[in-house]
Amino acid sequence: NSKTTNICCIGAGYVGGPTMSVIAQKCPNIKVTVVDLNEERIAAWNDDDATKIPIYEPGLSAIVSEARGKNLFFSTDVEKAIDEAQIIFISVNTPTKNYGKGKGMAADLKYIELCARQIAKIAKDNKIVVEKSTLPVRTAEAIKSILENTGNGVQFEILSNPEFLAEGTAVSDLLNPDRILIGGETTKEGQLAIQTLVDIYANWVPIDKILTTNVWSSELSKLTANAFLAQRISSINALSELCEKTGANINEVAKAIGMDSRIGPKFLKSSVGFGGSCFQKDILNLVYIAKSYGLNEVADYWEQVIIMNDHQKKRFSNKIVQTLYNTVASKKITFLGWAFKKDTNDSRESAAIYVADDLINEQAQIAIYDPKVSRKKILSDLDYLESRTYKENSKNVASFDNPYDTCAGAHAIAILTEWDEFVTYDWARIYDSMQKPAFIFDGRNLLNKSELEKIGFVYHEIGT
Ligand code: NAD
Ligand code: UDX
Fold first, then answer.
1. Where is the UDP-glucose/GDP-mannose dehydrogenase C-terminal domain (predicted)?
2. Alpha carbon of 10 to ligand 2 centroid (Å)
3. Is 278 noted as a catalytic residue in this protein?
4. To bridge 65 with a disulfide, which of 50, 120, 198, 356 should be the other Cys (CB 3.0-4.6 Å)?
5. Among candidates 405, 94, 464, which has minimal Cα distance to 249?
6. Alpha-carbon gap, residue 51 to 36, rounded angstroms
């Protein structure tokens, strides 16, 4: 849209950072400012060395270095950015509430509300406010009420524009999205606001992939999409346990059902359990919303996806303990991978955290190598569970910057993330350095079973 010359995004995280970088690259005539309260994060986004940006995503640092300083800016001056922008994207975190009503289930909307109040305070001219964060259905109503009641007579239009990027593939997902979803009011002003946002995406997204709906459909579609994706993983993981009992092979079963074009091949990879900041939080939120309308069967149906996922993680740690002769006390267990999937430095809700917690309860010594996750992050992930003190966690966890030292002397190796580099290791060298029998528990069905067995490993994968 020739009219839009200035936009801002509140929240410079895994969504705000990559999304705005791609918009800036594709819309050179729009000034894009990404703001955050976190000074350290903004400083990292502004680091002269673009490989030091706070989020690791293949292809992202190149886009940031291309656009930064031209029409892409990272700043802590939230008020100035709000004041100058015609469109304000809200991309702050919406974690599961860990206190009060809805604790452990509902989305915590305190950061969203803060943004709305700040916009209301600062805005002196009409603005379009875009919900980019994942929000419970009908949140736009609350945002509207805050804006209208404190908004100095300024007109606000609220749009829902959920983000469907997956971490690790954020840049290609943003450049080539399956669809862009924009929900707005059915009023004339609402439709105009929708069109303004459509015009931005139309700079690089084919128009038939830009879907417009009412606000509530858009908000609910985001929760629904994540629930469906996670449900496929819990479905295949549920069957992996049955495969282990019956001699069926989950890799073969997944291939066989995935070739049915009605089912399709994607998201059928059995694993140690899904992680990431979205699936669990969004399903819990869906369950909470269903319950709040008295829809108990609907709530129970979706909650089962989480119950299955928790079971899959637990099953993996139990299997390690049982196989190691029912005790891992004082044994070195090596984790290859801590991130919740490959090609990201994000470890939020990673299955590795829960598996490590179980094994530390069994007094194992955990040695961890991840190509992108720091020891500091690993310890803070464990600390967040509040299972024991920080000091106790530090005693039980060692981290290394190369895989061979991490594996030396170990009783077992557990693969928690499917990083490509793990496949290329010198596995014979690793075998020679380990205690015997040398066990591998492959939580990602990543490695080549017959090759490893030839070397001498006792190899266990999921669902075979
Ligand atoms: P994040 O935690 O990486 O980033 C959020 C940022 O917002 C943080 O840096 C935080 O400091 C900042 N912030 C919070 N309150 C603020 C305020 N009042 N003013 C300025 N900055 C503030 O989170 P994320 O992963 O980018 O997720 C953001 C939203 O997008 C969530 O609702 C999430 O559900 C959704 N989402 C995430 C993904 C994903 O893959 N991570 C994908 C789609 C949607
Ligand atoms: C997800 C959604 O895919 C994305 O559309 C949404 O915007 C945010 O949430 P993300 O969590 O970044 O993205 O990664 P995703 O690729 O969905 O993987 C989530 C988890 O499921 C990871 O732990 C992954 O390892 C696991 N997974 C995925 C499987 O175990 N098996 C699969 O077949 C696919």
1. 334-449
2. 24
3. yes
4. 50
5. 464
6. 20
